[in-house]
Design brief:
The protein is an alpha/beta fold. It has twelve helices and twelve strands. It folds into two domains: 110 residues, no CATH class; 284 residues, Zn peptidases (Aminopeptidase, 3-Layer(aba) Sandwich), CATH 3.40.630.10. The chain has an eight-stranded mixed sheet with strand order 5-6-8-7-9-12-10-11, with helices on both faces. The chain has a four-stranded antiparallel sheet with strand order 2-3-1-4. Helix 2 packs across helix 3, helix 8 crosses helix 12 and helix 10 packs across helix 12. 56% of the residues are buried.
Amino acid sequence: MSRFAPQWLLSLAALAAAPAFASGPADGSSKPVFVVAAERTHRAALAGAGARLSTLASHDGDALAIREVPADRLAELARHVHEKEKRCGGFFAFDSREQAEAFVRDDLSALAVSAQAASYTVDNQATVTPWLAQVREANIRATIRSLSGNWTTRHAASASGRVASDWVRDTWRNLAAHRADVSVEQVACGNCGQQPSVVLTVRGNELPGEVVVLGAHLDSLASGGASAGAPGADDDASGVATLTEVLRVALAGGYKPRRTVKFMAYAAEEIGLRGSNAIASDHRDRGVEVVGVLQLDMTNYRTAGAADLRLVGDNSNAGLQQLVRQLYSRYLGGGALAEYRCGYGCSYHASWTAAGYPAAMLFEGGTATGGYSPHIHTRNDTLANMGNSAANSVPFAKLGLAFLGELGKTSAL
């Protein structure tokens, strides 16, 4: 148990006594969910929600709380986190109070473990360096255009959210054609709506039991529910497109990793980090040895004077963060990475941290004053509002390739 255990145990009585929310969603189309978020976020975003907060222990400086919330208010919560708190993610959503309580208990216990520095080496230049010149902005741009233009939304509860998942599955399968050591699957979760996550696995040639993960989220969101226009070009078609270019470059060169490598496009991130939490929890429950996780969320918006990219400082492993800094310096020739803190549950790398695995996240440079795209979670999150270019995503693809080569290593067999 973590250092927060005494307060957690004292809070159980309050949890048991907390009243349930009396009514469901206004349209009756979905049942209430139990949201874990920072207490301050609950109070500011869901004033008048009706249910009393169940205040828990602290997580990395944030007092946490559980509240039963109508599912149709999740977009309101997500909008508050982005627009008012100026950060991404921010909460986890569960079908039952018991699941929410168990998650927080495990999360608090895992925090101390995942925060410990892991040890990594940078010695695979022979593989990584030739990759970098092969990154193509046009490829990233084309994938962003497809994901943001083919459907009005990729909301996890929508039919088009499912079709978008199928599209990513088929695109990744085509890149991996004729590779017997590569498999692609869709992974559903009980509360992910119609949308499954997509997972591509390249089996390790020498250390198949050690796993490296690179991920981005597939769904999109805008005010108005599952049918609202949400092209999600930056959030997060850009991350999926960047990940797809990393995959293309590596497989085109016949890359054979020593460790098993998994590429993941997560479902239902915008409505409570559901797809990533389901996958990370499953890996933990099966005892899978995940040696490092890198997440790419929003890679393509940057204004003049802003950093090329930023490294998220919280919910992250110190050793893995240091590796990312080394990779940026070694392979991209840059100085220090810009840093960014985004608070509790800020994005899906937090799902892996909560499961006890070392994780890190890269985030777009945004604006010169430290913000990010003003268009996310609206119908204006389009490629046109990013200059019809994916140039800002190119350094993310290069850093993703460096992460892949240095953690996955190259098989000598």
